[in-house]
Amino acid sequence: xxxxxxxxxxxxxxxxxxxxxxxxxxxxxxxxxxxxxxxxxxxxxxxxxxxxxxxxxxxxxxxxxxxxxxxxxxxxxxxxxxxxxxxxxxxxxxxxxxxxxxxxxxxxxxxxxxxxxxxxxxxxxxxxxxxxxxxxxxxxxxxxxxxxxxxxxxxxxxxxxxxxxxxxxxxxxxxxxxxxxxxxxxxxxxxxxxxxxxxxxxxxxxxxxxxxxxxxxxxxxxxxxxxxxxxxxxxxxxxxxxxxxxxxxxxxxxxxxxxxxxxxxxxxxxxxxxxxxxxxxxxxxxxxxxxxxxxxxxxxxxxxxxxxxxxxxxxxxxxxxxxxxx
Amino acid sequence: xxxxxxxxxxxxxxxxxxxxxxxxxxxxxxxxxxxxxxxxxxxxxxxxxxxxxxxxxxxxxxxxxxxxxxxxxxxxxxxxxxxxxxxxxxxxxxxxxxxxxxxxxxxxxxxxxxxxxxxxxxxxxxxxxxxxxxxxxxxxxxxxxxxxxxxxxxxxxxxxxxxxxxxxxxxxxxxxxxxxxxxxxxxxxxxxxxxxxxxxxxxxxxxxxxxxxxxxxxxxxxxxxxxxxxxxxxxxxxxxxxxxxxxxxxxxxxxxxxxxxxxxxxxxxxxxxxxxxxxxxxxxxxxxxxxxxxxxxxxxxxxxxxxxxxxxxxxxxxxxxxxxxx
Amino acid sequence: xxxxxxxxxxxxxxxxxxxxxxxxxxxxxxxxxxxxxxxxxxxxxxxxxxxxxxxxxxxxxxxxxxxxxxxxxxxxxxxxxxxxxxxxxxxxxxxxxxxxxxxxxxxxxxxxxxxxxxxxxxxxxxxxxxxxxxxxxxxxxxxxxxxxxxxxxxxxxxxxxxxxxxxxxxxxxxxxxxxxxxxxxxxxxxxxxxxxxxxxxxxxxxxxxxxxxxxxxxxxxxxxxxxxxxxxxxxxxxxxxxxxxxxxxxxxxxxxxxxxxxxxxxxxxxxxxxxxxxxxxxxxxxxxxxxxxxxxxxxxxxxxxxxxxxxxxxxxxxx
Amino acid sequence: xxxxxxxxxxxxxxxxxxxxxxxxxxxxxxxxxxxxxxxxxxxxxxxxxxxxxxxxxxxxxxxxxxxxxxxxxxxxxxxxxxxxxxxxxxxxxxxxxxxxxxxxxxxxxxxxxxxxxxxxxxxxxxxxxxxxxxxxxxxxxxxxxxxxxxxxxxxxxxxxxxxxxxxxxxxxxxxxxxxxxxxxxxxxxxxxxxxxxxxxxxxxxxxxxxxxxxxxxxxxxxxxxxxxxxxxxxxxxxxxxxxxxxxxxxxxxxxxxxxxxxxxxxxxxxxxxxxxxxxxxxxxxxxxxxxxxxxxxxxxxxxxxxxxxxxxxxxxxxx
Lengths: 326, 326, 319, 319
Ligand SMILES: Cc1ncc(C[n+]2csc(CCOP(=O)(O)OP(=O)(O)O)c2C)c(N)n1
Ligand SMILES: Cc1ncc(C[n+]2csc(CCOP(=O)(O)OP(=O)(O)O)c2C)c(N)n1
Ligand SMILES: [Mg+2]
Ligand SMILES: [Mg+2]
What we know:
The complex is a heterotetramer, with 2 copies of chain A (326 residues) and 2 copies of chain C (319 residues).
Chain A: E1 3-5, H1 6-20, E2 24-28, H2 44-52, E3 53-55, H3 60-71, E4 76-80, H4 91-98, H5 101-104, E5 114-119, H6 134-138, E6 144-146, H7 151-163, E7 168-173, E8 180-182, E9 198-201, E10 206-210, H8 214-227, E11 232-236, E12 239-241, H9 245-255, E13 258-265, H10 270-279, E14 292-296, H11 305-310, H12 315-325
Helix pairs in contact in A: 1-7, 3-4, 8-12
Chain C: H1 5-30, H2 45-52, E1 60-62, H3 68-73, H4 78-85, H5 119-132, E2 139-144, H6 151-162, E3 167-173, E4 176-177, E5 180-181, H7 182-185, E6 201-206, H8 210-227, E7 230-235, H9 253-260, H10 264-274, H11 280-302
Parallel strand pairs in C: 1-2, 2-3, 3-7, 6-7
Antiparallel strand pairs in C: 4-5
The complex binds thiamine diphosphate (2 copies) and magnesium ion (MG) (2 copies).
């Protein structure tokens, strides 16, 4: 199969869907000629024109609400927030309007929109450009939340998100944009259903549950342990909401040891939700060790590259956590 | 001891601190002559005047950032957000500025401000006026988070929050405003240190960990079970950040059974953090049953009073959860 | 453009219906039949009724928390409004939304909003749809004077202006945001001057003059379809407190009474009689109709079933 | 007011220092010595230098992401700026903030901001402190043309106006927000018209004329102390890309070149020579000083220690 980058996969998903459905439009800051801050949408303005690919003023609240309003009246907007940190400006419209309008209007509205935004650290952009805020949106009924870790997943999940009739927050991983992976040919339409975890590596001794940028790290650790005879299963949850609870619980039952890894600050991160689900399931009775969480340190992301690299889980710290569980 | 309401306790804390320190000022929407949407600040405008008690336009983002800016330059502002749902409009300034300025400026800034806001459902105000969003702010390094359950705690904790040199999000409980409790005389200055949980009832068979409006419910359940010979410990965490992890773990070790209760939607709620901490502590080895969480249903808060009452934990549903654990 | 007799009748009837709706709702409150809150627009009926009556079904509106006049203006069904107010299954939101969230997509209402200025970005998006889909309809976005100080106001007017979206921004300036007089929340007297920040047209009208509002809305619709957004400020007043519990210490009885003398319904009634378009009796009969309609609405609502907790997960997500 | 020789010298030196700082920083980038990004203000030096030079230490500023000129204008130490740029322990933020967060509270800089329009509410709060504490100082708030479309702009100017806070809002209009020309982000030509929405004074100046900016800032300070906020728009241009990676497809080389001809430093230099205030040699010597100062800054930064992970929890919370 051909290999393309995570960024290209996202661009292909949007472009293919926009070719299929005229009512999909895309808006955001500098997504047109500039191609987006991370170059994800390069070429789309040229193909679809300024009606369907719209540069906006710097106005996160308005574009998020505008997408919701357009979604309720016949369009299927994709909106890009340049950095997930700036979702902070859009929460009112995302949470009080987009997420709740169907419910609070007694089912009269559907809000088929996708909010795409890059999350995570590692680019030296410091405190206000590096956060991982997925836990917030997971806490809001009415929203779905996706974080892909491979080009293949990114494309299939984004297509599913675009076809979904609900507001989907699609958080991309800056540091994965340039990573490559196998993806079917452009014509070859495929969808990855929201709500299905993916076992990225099977194993029997310990389960690492993770998502996004931490998936390749977990795989690297698993590979290293397999050399030493320890078999680690790596589950990529992919969609945080809806969550494939079943997959997590059966893996936990199988291996009896669970490590949850995410980049977001550990305190209040989604790892707590996962730990809580497992600790309150029948898997509890199969556990041979405490459920371990390894999240980012509870500090803002610093600028200095050495510091920046060390405040999130690393291959070393994941390895250490695995060793503590064994 | 005299009894006053939770709302009065909050008002007393603010007023006493403002008398003590001229640089404390208070701003928010309709907090002046109107006395605040819930009447909490009644009388303060009359006592302190319009320089220190400031009605603002409807402008949540600006007042939150204005408080942060004033806090960095010599004042100690208290800002009221009329409903915690409208923190959604203020997250940028709260999270990217107030919470991070000290760290990102290398320690040059201190941001001694309190953001007070009422959370929770039960008043028939529906989806956009009833959320419990504390999990969001708990996930942000640099913020402290307090939710009191009694007038005594409200007063002592708010005073501590006002004296704290960091941004503190102080979430009040609408449905507790009119509840009464014993509070020392006005002159009788007391402080409750942030970061100390309170065992509201001792017990040996099961621990309920909770906070805010769910504390009285948990106590009611505990009382009922004590009639049947089951001894339930009720821990009110009071400050979610910093969290008194030690107190939770030792109680879990003692009773071997843990139920976590909160009003906020269960998915992504702070209960996950608590469950995760316990499941990854030495208490894990003392547990006789899974760690149970009982949060609000993962739905927006509906208007109809019967529905509204049933989407959050009730005495009945807490009782049921306790029975499942025993 | 002169209004036809039919049009006048519609305006008078809708304003009267709205007044009756709210006065009845207030009584239901006092009778303890309602949990929650409501924001009445008594005294402001000309705004929503005047603006919405000339619109087509395909024109959208976004409503405010104080929006019964807007909904009734847009031909919402008072039975379902009342049922929603009482939290019943037959209400517009199946009892889940209450009157801060009444919506009727079938008549073009995209819903009331509990968040001040929350409707502005939504309206902008609805107008984007209309433009994108090549429709010849507009979106009317209602909001208050207080809302005009929120960031959402600025961002929405700016975005709509840049994209020339067909949206009419209607600010019902009733002088107060809750208890705060506009002279404490903005340093200008005429809110319509804010249009200049976006290079769009702004006008200010007497918000108690339903006929002028009707006429100007028709003109505005044409303007907006051709040139993009416009800001229309309707200066009016609310007679009652902000919501059910409001001691109104922030204003004088005199001020309230002065405005009561400028009642938009009485004014229209006087005009109709002066101009001999209707007789006193005809108008009394219309009022009786309205009273009966609301009585029926209460009966409908009271006889409707409560929603069931078993359906609570319905509509959290669409399929 | 005519500027003294000393004042002219200060302006010329600071602008030159800023230019040299950024050109050197750009080279460090290319040499791979910097992780992260930076936003240069080459071509815009007159704005921050012109506004900040007449201020006192007790006057506050809030800076933008493109704020080296503002910081240098306010007398920040280029050693610590450079050290921060290289992420060193001796940097203004101990290497934790980088150049999007340089701050120096000792000279009155309340910090640069990575969030567009993020500084506006903060500046409003700083001015509130000044007013509350009875100080005779002002806060200057820098932001860009793009920032003027954020809700924070609207809310902050409105709040400052209502409370008559001593804040000077300075919009450096360089025609683009990243790649987006102002004619795609707002439907007005002159951003200063937005002052009218808040009932405050607005002026627009040539942002490349450091002398006028200096003079007008002095006047503005007096005005603001007496009357409350004012909006000053400085029309200028950035010569380089938005940040380190920018192909600049959204503008023409010609446009850039036209603006290069209007270089604020050259313009000031020409003026100083025309008016015979300084000789060519004197100005060349000043430039050499600036070059040396930046060389020293690089040496200082490069010889400074890296921050240690052991201190990572420092400054998350104050005691
Ligand atoms: C974002 C937000 N802030 C505060 C409130 C509380 N609140 C409800 S109505 C209101 C006053 C609104 O004033 P205005 O926009 O003038 O409308 P009016 O009530 O006068 O019709 C306030 C402050 C809210 N609902 N939403
Ligand atoms: C809230 C927010 N949105 C988007 C960005 C990304 N961004 C950084 S600078 C910039 C352009 C800002 O334009 P302007 O305010 O004109 O300042 P300039 O860069 O031209 O100096 C953008 C969009 C951001 N940092 N913050
Ligand atoms: Mg009003
Ligand atoms: Mg710019």
